Amino acid sequence: QVQLVESGGGLVQPGGSLRLSCAASGSIRSIDVMCWYRQAPGKQREVVTTLTSAGSTYYAEAVKGRFTISRDNAKNTVYLQMNSLKPEDTAVYYCNFRRYTGIRWTDYWGQGTQVTVSS
Q: Is 99 within 8 Å of 116 (Cβ atoms)?
């Protein structure tokens, strides 16, 4: 079982930056895919970015060039660096880890951290 705890959210002005952290209770070396999702008020949860164990990344078009996902295996932590933030980036951000057991995928979710972009 893996427990995830996000941190780093807050209020920031448009154009500002934040770095979100997702700390895992155990080793992340066995995790196959690490993701960040977000959910804005009244909207469905959407994927923001993914990072595979092989190092491949995906970014949603809305954040491409502004957000960067990274990992630190020694700290069992995944980060989301968010630059040039816009009001439309306001949402609760969730980290998600996916592990494939050979039979099925198992998902782990954090509790979410609020990001508000406003002047």
A: no
Characterize the bridge pairing of strands 77-82 and 105-109: unpaired
Please identify which residue in the block is written with the tokens 């070396």. 29
pLDDT above 90 for 102:
no
Over residues 55-95, the pLDDT tens digits come to 999 999 999 999 999 999 899 999 999 999 999 999 999 99
Concatenate the DSSP letters of all residues of 23-84 into one string.
EESS-STT-SEEEEEEE-TTS--EEEEEEETTS-EEE-TTTTTTEEEEEEGGGTEEEEEE-S
State how far the Cα of 118 lies from the Cα of 11, in Å rounded to an integer.
Answer: 7
Alpha carbon of 99 to those of 41, 87, 96: distances in Å?
29, 33, 10
Report yes or no: 113 and 36 within 8 Å, Cβ to Cβ. Answer: no
Bridge-based pairing of strands 10-12 and 113-117 is parallel
